[in-house]
């Protein structure tokens, strides 16, 4: 147990993040489950991991609060050791047609989805490098960052920004054996993708597999990227979207 690799999953109290955290716990990682509001979800996930003899605990901060994020992560790393893996999953939408999009909608989405990557990964990366044990950074981007979605100029920009960040960071840290990749989910059944039936029907027309994705399917991909088997995969954007056109 002492030499378990530590991994951090942001936004682990619900949705995709919770599924990834629970899967990584099953895979034998020591998991830090980050949350902002979803303490109950995190506690439930931690109990599940512990029931399977895994090791897990919670950490709470707002990924938009740079100072607090850094302080809490630095203290955590100082006390418990460097992270082997970081999954940047926390994210929001604030959709509106661009002419109607408020500056608050723009700022909140960029701050959470893109600047949140800096606020979380930056404090973790030097200790990861210094540990000389390789590592993994996984950003949860979106199909929206690849194709650009109507009503999501802010969200698409933030998720495309993450892809750029991942590609550049992969070049910088590759020689340290650290891989950096993005996962680009399509429509996954979570709170974020609660759609009315008419909209859902229209979107399903664009998905050859004719269904929404499940959180466990994204978790399985994250689990693979975190594993030793994925050691030669870096600087990639891997879509998991049912073939969305
Ligand atoms: P949910 O809305 O279910 O969960 C969002 C998560 O982000 C929550 O855990 C929430 O934490 C966390 N979060 C949001 N803002 C902050 C913040 N400021 N500080 C800390 N944590 C924050 O979304 P999903 O599970 O669906 O999405 C997870 C990721 O996957 C997101 O990045 C999303 O953009 C991406 N994605 C989702 C798709 C989908 O169809 N569902 C498709 C493509 C990408 P808390 O509850 O504790 O506040």
TrEMBL record:
Q: Which domain of life is it from?
A: Bacteria
The record's listing under Pfam families reads: adh_short_C2
Q: What keywords appear on the UniProt entry?
A: Oxidoreductase
- Keyword check for Nucleotidyltransferase: no
Every copy of the Ketoreductase domain together lies at: 5-186
GO molecular function list: oxidoreductase activity
Q: Which PANTHER family match?
A: 3-OXOACYL-(ACYL-CARRIER-PROTEIN) REDUCTASE, 3-OXOACYL-[ACYL-CARRIER-PROTEIN] REDUCTASE FABG
Q: NCBIfam families given for it? A: fabG_rel, PRK05653.1-5, PRK12826.1-2
State the family it belongs to. Answer: Belongs to the short-chain dehydrogenases/reductases (SDR) family.
> What name does this protein carry?
3-oxoacyl-[acyl-carrier protein] reductase
């Amino acid at each position: 147990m002492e030499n378990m690799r530590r991994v951090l999953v942001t936004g682990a109290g619900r949705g995709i993040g919770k599924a990834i955290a629970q899967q990584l716990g099953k895979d034998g990682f020591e998991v830090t489950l980050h949350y902002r509001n979803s303490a109950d979800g995190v506690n439930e996930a931690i109990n599940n991991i512990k029931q399977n003899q895994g090791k897990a605990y919670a950490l709470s901060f707002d990924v938009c609060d740079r100072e607090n994020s850094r302080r809490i992560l630095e203290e955590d790393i100082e006390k418990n050791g460097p992270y082997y893996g970081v999954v940047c999953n926390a994210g929001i939408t604030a959709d509106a047609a661009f002419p109607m999009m408020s500056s608050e909608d723009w700022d909140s989405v960029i701050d959470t989805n893109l600047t949140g990557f800096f606020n979380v990964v930056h404090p973790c990366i030097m200790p990861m490098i210094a540990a000389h044990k390789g590592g993994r950074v996984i950003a949860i981007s979106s199909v929206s960052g690849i194709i650009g979605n109507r009503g999501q100029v802010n969200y698409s920009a933030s998720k495309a920004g993450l892809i750029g960040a991942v590609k550049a960071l992969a070049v910088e840290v590759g020689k340290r054996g650290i891989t950096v990749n993005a996962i680009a989910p399509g429509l996954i059944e979570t709170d974020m993708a609660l759609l009315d039936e008419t909209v859902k029907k229209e979107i399903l027309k664009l998905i050859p597999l004719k269904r929404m994705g499940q959180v466990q399917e994204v978790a399985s991909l994250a689990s693979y990227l975190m594993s030793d088997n994925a050691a030669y995969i870096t600087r990639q954007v891997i879509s998991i979207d049912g073939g969305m056109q």
